Amino acid sequence: MTEIQGAGVALVTPFNADGSVDFETLGKLIEFQIKEGMNYLVSLGTTGETATLSSEEKKKIWKFTKDKVNGRVPLVAGIGGNHTQEIVETIKNFDIEGYCAILSVSPYYNKPTQEGIYQHYKAISEASQLPIILYNVPGRTGSNMTAQTTLRLANDFDNIVAIKEASGNFAQFSEILRDKPDDFMLISGDDPGTLPMMAMGAVGIISVVGNAYPSFVSTLTKLCSEGAFVEARNYHNKLLYITDLCFIEGNPCGVKYILEELGFGKEYVRLPLVSISLATKQKIKEEITKLAI
Length: 293
Description:
By secondary structure, the protein is an alpha/beta fold. It has a single domain (2-228), classed as TIM Barrel. The chain is built from 12 helices and 8 strands. The protein has an 8-stranded parallel sheet. Helix 4 links the parallel strand 4 and strand 5 (132-136). Helix 1 packs across helix 2, helix 10 packs across helix 11 (253-261) and helix 10 runs antiparallel to helix 12. The protein is globular and about 50 Å long. Catalyzes the condensation of (S)-aspartate-beta-semialdehyde [(S)-ASA] and pyruvate to 4-hydroxy-tetrahydrodipicolinate (HTPA). Its EC number is 4.3.3.7.
């Protein structure tokens, strides 16, 4: 699965003032990502505000993204949730043309046991024609998928090929990397973790800040993959503060404002998310100016 190594980006879903999907801006953003060196794109991850999109909107976005990309870079579809049977049916009916894998978040809100998480992914694995990337993000789901559960899934199902890890638990990352099958991959789920996780053996990042700064993120991962960590540190440090500002009032609120400032649509988000404060906007404007120098 070299398709999901290096720099991936979890695309935002741009909206118009009336709340409809802004496909024109989405198209511009996709072209920007490809031009600036992103290795692959993720359509409808958390950053795409998937929780507030209807089933029909998701289908239209997946098709639009596939048609726009037209095979130029690999595509991953975000299909996850806390209703296992609904996710299974969505995956069974998903048009896989143009997509290389599915990113599926660990069940949120329900707070399942580790056995429940295992059985959830087992059902998804058995339903999917595409490889599965697990996604562990305890800050959003309310439960952690342990290294033991990740390794159990990696060993039991050939089409579970990677995990996007956003737990921030480096002891957990170490255990996964030490005991995983040779072809199972660890992917950073947090931008600031890219460099240290790749130094440990992760294969890349699925980025948020990459929506706005794809060339920085793609260069960072390329340098890390070459073992040039001293050079990579420069890009890591450049991105630290702007990444913090992306998340300080919720994702993707911050990165959408950055994109507006860079000429990619408007910052509109769907409730219960709201636009970021004027104080944070001012900080972002100052940092954008610094990064442009």
